[in-house]
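Usage

Read records sequentially. Each one opens with the input sequence:
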Amino acid sequence: MVRTAAGNTSRVVVGCSAVATALAVHTAINLRLLRRPSQAARIEDSVSILIPARNEARHIEATIRSALAQTGIDDLEVIVLDDGSTDGTGDIARLIDDPRLTVIDGGSEPVPPGWLGKPWACGRLAGHAHGQVLAFVDADVHLEPNGLAGTIHEMRSAGFALVSPYPRQRAESALERLVQPLVTWSWAATMPLRWAERSLRPSLAAANGQVLVVDAPSYRAIGGHSAVAHEVIEDVALMRAVKRSGQFTATLDGSKVATCRMYEGDKQVIDGYAKSLWNAFNGPVGSIAVNSLLLGAYVIPAVGAIAGRSRGTRRAGAVGYAAGVASRALVAARTGERVFPDTLAQPASILAFSTLNLVSWSRHLRGTNTWKGRPVGVRP
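and closes with the structure output:
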């Protein structure tokens, strides 16, 4: 009986390590195929940079100035929506003297029924835009000077209607360093990139609303953000809506396009992921399946490497753990994030991520999920 249990444990560790190894190989292939925008492009399109801002006084000036400093774009406008801020965000934005900049007072009225705050803000911004290309940029993002020109050149030359260049993710606190690298690593390890680019399947969508670039006529043809008005993860939903309309999209390496510290400190990490993870995997069944896969591929091998009863189990676990670290390290090296020692904590990163999923579901079911003072989602 003991031998049978040990044998079963060994087989589980071997199987999980095989999954981790396969994903590491897939990561390496994906990174060879991953598109990176040119750093020396010039475009003819008129461009509207649209920045929704709610209580972003710490970041808004730097973000606007980086937007106005874009090179390779001759016809540029930057529009900022002060979305009911109470910290002087709008006042700071209005102090910037540039004829290309427009600051809109979004008022403090409640978000209309059927809408969430971020889609509502983006939709209002788009209504004021005149560009042939719309670039939605979060208010805490720093754009590199040729970032958007290169991104738009890639979008036009490859025939995409929407592209999502993932910015380089800055992480400082302990929990940030555990969790934030997973933002880019997750799709780089699992999404079949070339298939996704030439497939209209909505499930093959990975987008990041920190920087989202879309052809304006294509955006308006799907109804703009009204098509995703109630979506918590509106960026992915918008990419899916474009795919459903029969147009192609792509996920790009945006590490040379922009930089963003998504959350500042452990509390923001918890609150930020809690607001959305319950909605990330198409319901509780999908959430359980995804988290089980991640725990199996990246935690069980590490446990087997340390606590396996047989030498073979420990060796198999070590291979699986090394594969997980290698996958993370490949992505970190490509995108300019910390490689060591952070990638060595891959099992801890996955445990932290799964814990955040539990927190998110708990808050969602109790109806206590909020973000920037607004409720997020509804209790079923």
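Summary fields computed downstream for this record:
- Strands lie at 47-53, 76-82, 101-105, 133-137, 141-143, 162-169, 211-215, 249-260, 370-371, 374-375.
- The chain has a mean pLDDT of 93.
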